[in-house]
Amino acid sequence: MQSAGLNIARCFDNGIKVLESWGSGNTPSGHIVMSVKKEGESCYSVDLSTVGDAGATQDVLAYKDGTGTAMVTLLGTAAGNSATCPGGSPVGLPSRGGCAVAAAALGGLMPASSCLNNTAGTCQF
Questions:
Q1: Torsion of CA 7, 55, 53, 113, to 10 degrees
Q2: Looking at residues 4-28, what average pLDDT do you find?
Q3: Which residue did the predictor score with more confidence, 86 or 31?
Q4: Are 51 and 35 in contact (CB under 8 A)?
Q5: CB-based contacts of 69, cutoff 8 Å, min separation 6
Q6: 116, CA 20 to 30 Å: which among 19, 35, 58, 124?
């Protein structure tokens, strides 16, 4: 069963606008898309979805440029995490060390990041 989503727009004094689209779709945990614009031009987007059944899910996180072209796709499963660049093969991400810290830093670009929770008011995207 597909359910309706929720759209939240936030604007910043420097011209950045963020639109979070939350929808549960047909996946166990849902689907989130965050789009970022500055002065009307698309900067990037992040598309996060959970696919599979409740016993074997995987999280897919795709970072896309302003035109919607994938830059990197991260895949998280119970067996581990991997990253894939366009045209490339998946590369395993370690669970600790420098690479793990770098991958975790991408979380600042993800939906529901802490910077979005500290904005004043909402706006039109």
A1: 20
A2: 74
A3: 86
A4: no
A5: 86
A6: 58
Contact between 71 and 49 (Cβ < 8 Å) = no
81 belongs to a structural domain:
yes
* Percentage above 90 pLDDT, the chain: 10
**What is the DSSP-derived secondary structure letter of residue 120?**
-
Reported as a single tens digit per residue, the pLDDT across 62-111 is 889 999 999 988 888 878 888 888 999 988 877 776 666 666 666 555 54
DSSP 92: E
Positive or negative, the CA dihedral 104, 32, 38, 14 is negative
Lookup result for tokens 């016993």: 55
CA distances from 103 to 34, 35, 59, 69, 94 (A): 18, 20, 14, 20, 9
Q: Which residue range(s) make up the domain with 15?
A: 6-117
